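User: Here's a chain of 338 residues. Predict its fold as tokens.
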Amino acid sequence: MHACGRCVVALALVVASHSWTARAQPKPGESEGEPKADTDTAAETPDQAEEPKAATDTDSQEAQGDNRGERERTKESSPASTESSLPPSVRVRPVFQAPDAAQPAVLAQKDEPEPGPTDHEQVIGRLGLGWLGMSEVPIAVAEPSGTQANPALVPNHEVRGRLVEAPVLGVRYWFNEWIAIEPGIGFRYDTGSIESDMGYVSAKVDKQPTKAVLGHLGAPIALATGQHMTLLLVPEVQLGLAWSKASAPYEQDAPPDADLRGLRFDVGARAGTEIHFGFMGLEQLALEASVGVFYSMRKVSASVGNQRLMDTSVVISTTSFSQPWDIFLNQVAARYYF
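Assistant: Prediction complete.
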């Protein structure tokens, strides 16, 4: 009996030891350090596993709703929303707003309007009427003397001259942007009389009549143009004539009238600027100032009977003026384009 009991106890110990060893060894796919899941928890049904997942989704949605509400409350309490709720007249603008460092600031370039046609382009094909300057034509100064049979001149050893003013009016016509033509003409006629009355004796003496004409022809060339200004080169030629007659101061055996004449011939070129008043809305109105160089020949002559006196002068020079206001006589011209 005692031997059988001992055998049973030994067999029970061996079975218990074998069971403990099998339970301590890890299953394939499990690490030795991971704890073994409880059999009862692993044996949960699919319905029981879905319940925690559904609860988790519900909690996430509630959290998102809480976060959205918190953001809306924060936005409503922010200064921007407060400023937007104020009237435009009391809104406060930030003094300085720092640019985003991640994106460099780009300055927006404003589209500049394209410039319209220049004042010079707007007068192409139009006639510009203007004063080309006051030009002077020489004429001789002399008186006849002697008798009807033997006339002479006073003075008889030289001929003196004077200048007759003949303002030149002309037109300028631009064929295109670069080439134009500029004809002009000026003339003068003057006469009169002098009367003397002493009660018992009266006398009347006619003044010496004088006639002068001056022709002008130019060919303006536009070297450069701007919005209201044109740089010009004007080759030109001028021809002027003046003539008159002088009578003796007495009537008995008086000599014939003396023939007085004058001639002017100029050829040269001027360079200057024509400024249009388009900045005032008057692009048809222009003012031109110029200087140049000229070859000029002036001739005066006086003749009576068989006596004839003549004086000829040739000058090559640049334009000049002795008084500051003289520039307005020959170097400045006004013009209006129709």
